[in-house]
Design goal:
Trna Endonuclease, Chain: A, domain 1, 759 residues, alpha/beta, 7-stranded parallel sheet, 16% strand, 8-stranded mixed sheet, Rossmann fold, globular, 4 domains, 20 helices
Amino acid sequence: MKLKRYQESAIETLEEFMLLLKKPNITPDLAFYKITNETYNKRYGDIPFLCVKIPTGGGKTLVGCKSVERIMATTLQHKMDTGIVMWFVPSDAIKTQTLKKFKDSKDWHYEMFNESFDTKFKVFSNEEALTITPEDVRNNLCIIIASVVAFRHETSIQKKYKVYQENGSLMDHFQNIKDDKDLEKDKEGSVINSLANVVRKHSPLVVIDEGHRTSGELSIEFLSDLKPSFVIEFTATPREGSNILVNTSASELKIEDMVKIPIVLESRSQWEQVVSDGLMKREELEKRTKKLKGEYIRPIALLQAQPKSKTRATVTVEQLKQMLLNKKIPEEQIKIKTSDKDELEGINLFDKKCEVRYILTVNALAEGWDCSFAYVLISVANLGAKIAVEQIIGRVIRMPYAKKKPDDVLNRSYVFASAPNFNEAANKIIKGLEDNGYSRADFVGATDVEKYTDVLEAKKAIKKDLKVPMMALSKNKLSFEDLVGEDFELSKQNADFEFKIHYDLDGQATIDITEDDEWLQGKQLSLPYQYLDGEHPVEELVVWLDKKLRFPMVSPEDKVVFIEKAIQTQLKKYKRSLPELSVNRYLFADRLSEVISDILETHTKKVFDNLLSKKKLLVSTFDSFPATIALKSPVPKVFNKNLYERIDSINGEERGFVDRIDLGTLENIEFWVRNREKVDPFYIQGWKKGKFYPDFVAVTKKGNLVALEWKGEDRVSNEDTKYKEIIAKIWEKLGKGKLHFFLVHNKNIEEILTKVKDL
């Protein structure tokens, strides 16, 4: 399972936050400010509280699963992959769907948990968790899926919820308990044997999924009562007061072909005409899908009926079905999914043998249901009614196979709505898009669809082909893997290194905590882990470390031998015991990762220097900048010499520098382009693993290519900047007079502009 670029970026940003937390005197609010430059809301005091914004259709739940693994491996590594994760969802429908995903061994979500925790995880509904055992929690990561309402902690209605009630099945969790100050007690002062107390006892990681669908402050305020150790929310539209660490734009989903945008609207006042038009569109789409090569798509229409009423005439599910039958549509192609009737149960809509093309509903598809074959939404629910189109827009927006189709008609989704006038329908659709993390720019009327232009796309303003030479080895782009080489053997490298033990065998933090280990400050750590007792097999520790240490450029067999060698060195030379290494395995894994990274970088530096001295390193052109680019947040300005119509947002200092290049100060500049990290094609590869993407590339009228890297004052002389300048100057030298690089900051702008003017 490979994550999309914006999903990987979300995880990387989360990791950046958690790595900052390890540093001395860095609190969650400081770490958040360093990354976002925004004020942090201390809703849960010193407990990290973060929000990840991803529009509907962007795989929020999958990012959530990966986030659990990374949080447990960093900020909560003292829990040793055990304990409780409370995964809150807004409704029973989403709860059912999430449980199915997390328990199905063939599902991506299950696979991600299985890869992260090696089968040592268990998934419970809040009802199933009423019989959770101490052994479950001690030996596994226990993920409890619960609807928000099941844990609402209002005194007047609290007794209704079983999670707060006395439960003899949970009694073993509270035997010989030493600290009960955070646990709820009865009138006699005895700890209540409740699931809520089990959760409190283990300071859970709390995940709020689909947070935008929960309403009211009570929906999240009760969480502090559960004594969480970390709270993270995944939502399409963050509520006020959320600490938005990751803000994924709709354009990023479009770049990755995740969604069918724009949504095309047709409205009619007569519901019969709405249905007829929608059915014709679905049939047209199916004819078009038959021309696709290598992809099976069976377009599905969702028909939204009105809820039954005793006081007025309504268009019911039954009426819609009869209308379809009257149009000679085979009954096996029609299924009903309502709150009291589910004909989709057990049906795989992606199966080529499946006949379903029409799904009739009222509101059952508003949440907890996904099928990317759904292309057409037909609503006779009268958009002014309680059950509005906006609630199920998210059901038709996902792109089949996350792959753009050669036929543009198949890259859109369609809504046919019953409404008195087009503007009313349009406003409802736009609100629905906004409720799902999109905007009015992602909507178009049917009569204007051919004139639709994506405001987050920019075409070339200057019709020039730009290919920037890149570091190369023979005819291929240079990569870090090339520098490691196929013959490198990690197992033959030195595995002797210092490793500090932080805990004693009872799982207590040692008294001597140095400044380097400041991240332990203030934590009362204990290790509820099975390796505190019994045997500690070397093989198990090796397998665990092998999974945690991800170095794909090293062969798995070679890595395992090095891990074994490192363990034996600790056991024999440093007189560590295997229980010590097992109990401190996360810290050992961190240290091993540092050691392997240093070994690889020392090796790649030698290889790089050797290639350079033997003149085997060169520059060569590869990919050109594309004809059209997708933007996240466009600058509202047209530049004179920019390769594209618009550019993505830049900070004020960069903007001032670009204006100097663009406004005629440098008459020799033919055009320039902003070069975005991990998005645009040009980068410089050195001996370190990461690629260097200079901020701007300018082309002069003499044919010189100028790479420009802007640095703020605080980063001009740090180690990362020094490295980038070294490899960029090597790239410049290999260009034999046609390639140029300049590091620019506030104090040298005039000097650099003068040098560029002469090229």
